Amino acid sequence: MRARTTSFTTQTAAPASGALDRWTLDRIARPLAGAKLRLQLWDGHGLTLSSGPPVATIHIRDRRTLLRIAIRPELGFGEAYTDGRVEVQGDLVAALEQIARALARQRTPAPVRLAPNDERRSRHNVHTHYDLGNDFYRLWLDEALLYTCAYYERPDVSLEAAQRAKLEHVCRKLRLRPGQTVVEAGCGWGALALYMAREYGVKVRAYNISTNQLAWAREEARRQGLDDRVTFIDGDYRTIDGSADAFVSVGMLEHVGPDHYDDLGRVIDRVLDPVHGRGLLHFIGRNSPMVLSEWIRRYVFPGAHPPALSEVLPGVFESRQLSILDVENLRLHYALTLKAWLERFEQHVDQIRVMFDERFVRTWRLYLAGSQAAFLAGDMQLFQVTFARPMANDLPWTRRYLYEGADA
Amino acid sequence: MRARTTSFTTQTAAPASGALDRWTLDRIARPLAGAKLRLQLWDGHGLTLSSGPPVATIHIRDRRTLLRIAIRPELGFGEAYTDGRVEVQGDLVAALEQIARALARQRTPAPVRLAPNDERRSRHNVHTHYDLGNDFYRLWLDEALLYTCAYYERPDVSLEAAQRAKLEHVCRKLRLRPGQTVVEAGCGWGALALYMAREYGVKVRAYNISTNQLAWAREEARRQGLDDRVTFIDGDYRTIDGSADAFVSVGMLEHVGPDHYDDLGRVIDRVLDPVHGRGLLHFIGRNSPMVLSEWIRRYVFPGAHPPALSEVLPGVFESRQLSILDVENLRLHYALTLKAWLERFEQHVDQIRVMFDERFVRTWRLYLAGSQAAFLAGDMQLFQVTFARPMANDLPWTRRYLYEGADA
């Protein structure tokens, strides 16, 4: 099994491909027409999908895998990759980008029906991904453990610098002033909450339902002497109470689900100062309503849904007369972030294989590479939406203040 | 009639108000509770709506007007103001802002049902407003005849400077380069088209259905020696053909109507370069779907509808996989623009009264003042939406380039 997983050249015992296999391969290839890829069967028979040289060859190891991919392309491909029954020879990200670009051309918006994420289900979803162990995430995230899109003022800065720039960019958009109060929904390992308290002198109540992340965040608050200004609360976003001058949520909306945007809007409306309250949501989105890859939802992010703007705006903002001040799409910043994560992941892949197993490594490799490819191909977006109460007139005249004094 | 129109103190022959009149006044006052206003009947009986001093007194001249306002508040108030049967003593804009703020607190999003604007109806709608005569608009618009929201880098710059800054801001967002082609839908008197050709060296095809505006724009193109690079076309946006690197529309979407966002999206999709095409829509919008004041739709802008973002995004962008890159809300810039317009309007009010009549003057005064108030009260928004084809990766890393080198 191990040998098949890592070797491209080993001859398998499978019988030579026949006419039916080749017909099936043609069917798989059809929606990918024009992609710079070669698809190859277990016996060397293959198809090159474009006239130019392919960026990679996708090896399909056996007939069962071929059929499975024909019937359920996304799930079949992902599961076979995890199992080593599909191998990608060449640049994995480039190959997945070719697939994403080919498929994106054929996309049409589809109504989204997903199981609602009630509080119990949300805890299960979050636990599945974010409680894999802080030691694991420390191997490949930046030092502050930011697991959301960084902000690259230039494409050549380090992940650390880009994550710090993201925190600063978010704080500037929130127009924080010392002594103000902030609620953060879904605070990860606490880096933004701590940054806001430390650099902007605000008081933060930060909510999360990942026990591992909360433990880390509280320890960090103590270590940095900020535990009088930052409170980390074990609680679902629906339980947020009290009041705040600003509301911020970075990388949580993807886990809320379309059935609960109204719940989130109700919470924001309840918490936010009725006159000068303002906020920011940062989330992975789409250009149009579409269901996330079934493979990702099953093996990486249960219950996740990156929404189109039109899915989010009515429930969260419009029904509360919250005013959209600014939307920024940072799509390519997430491609760079994921590139940095994947590089660090590969640097520590032996350790990670020992922590988990080879299937885990391949699942995460495909997830990180596939996500990078999806952002490069324009299939995924990263939206920062800044909003405010409708009658607040103390607004900056331009957005120049977001760019003043920062590293050019 | 003239005397009643302009005088606040003239005693009318109406009988003293009775219990029923006062009950009706109470009903009118109820949704305005807290507004810093005094409502006063023809015999001096009045109500002050807040504890503080009122910014203005609204005089209701007779019983018929009182009843009409009770039954159809927006339409009744507007018509009575035009007729001089309602007078506002004090600051008109401040009074209307008080009303807008009071009403905005009670707003709930409502489904919008409007008559479709087919090509014939669109021509009628546009003709009604924009073909009132170039001489009229020259009296109170800036020298380039820009009849859309200006961009105030600081609140103290002139209307002329703010309109020029708007043109520059739009061009920067479009990332125009010499030799590229631009389609403009709804070009007004042509100022943006001419600016793009002159300052950015692009070729522009600009569409409009206002004959007066087109005549002016073509003459300007000749005068400025730009008629080889700018073509002004008498045509509805639905007739736009050919191809372009960029698509821009400033102040037209308000006249398109919700039934036709899909038509507009189809046009953009047809025209725009399939790989690196990009564009910008600049339009008056709302925080949530709501019908425009019936008075405005009847007497000022037939067929108009300023949409919430959620109304526009699916038809125009999402169904075409166009990617939203940037949304900027310039609400308070429109309040300043309208303030400047109203001031110039009042400076030339005697001329305008001769061109039209007193009813026209009062209609336009209420429209300009009411619009300024609506932007101040957060009831109206001004959105600039920048978009691009989904796979174009030649994007600026930050929006800093929008702010570099411009007047600070």
Commentary on this structure:
Two copies of one chain form a homodimer. Chain A is an alpha/beta fold and 408 residues long. Chain A folds into two domains: 103 residues, Nonspecific Lipid-transfer Protein, Chain A; 284 residues, Rossmann fold, CATH 3.40.50.150. Helices cover 43% and strands 15% of the residues of chain A. Chain A contains 16 helices and eleven strands. In chain A, the strands form two sheets. A seven-stranded mixed beta sheet of chain A has the order 7-6-5-8-9-11-10, with helices on one face. In chain A, strands 2-1-3-4 form a four-stranded mixed beta sheet. In chain A, strand 6, helix 10 and strand 7 form a beta-alpha-beta unit. In chain A, helix 3 runs antiparallel to helix 4 and helix 11 crosses helix 13. The longest helix of chain A has 19 residues. The first copy, chain A, is elongated, with a radius of gyration of 23 Å. At the A-B interface, helix 13, strand 10 and helix 14 of A face helix 13, strand 10 and helix 14 of B.
Helix-strand topology string of chain A: HHEEEHHEHHHHEHEHEEHEHHEHHHE
In CATH terms, what is the fold-level topology of the largest domain in chain A? Rossmann fold
Shape verdict of chain A: elongated
Number of helices of chain A: 16
The biggest beta sheet of chain A reads: 7 strands, mixed
Mean pLDDT of chain A: 93
The Cα radius of gyration of chain A reads 23 Å
Oligomeric state of the chains present here: homodimer
What's the topology here?
The structure is a homodimer of 408-residue chains.
Chain A lengths: L1 H5 L12 H11 L7 E4 L5 E3 L7 E5 L2 H9 L1 H11 L2 E5 L1 H13 L14 H12 L3 H7 L18 H16 L6 E5 L5 H10 L2 E6 L2 H13 L6 E5 L11 E5 L10 H11 L6 E8 L8 H6 L9 H9 L5 E7 L1 H17 L1 H7 L2 H19 L4 E8 L20
Parallel strand pairs in A: 1-3, 5-6, 5-8, 6-7, 8-9
Antiparallel strand pairs in A: 1-2, 3-4, 9-11, 10-11
Helix pairs in contact in A: 2-3, 3-4, 4-16, 5-16, 11-13, 14-16
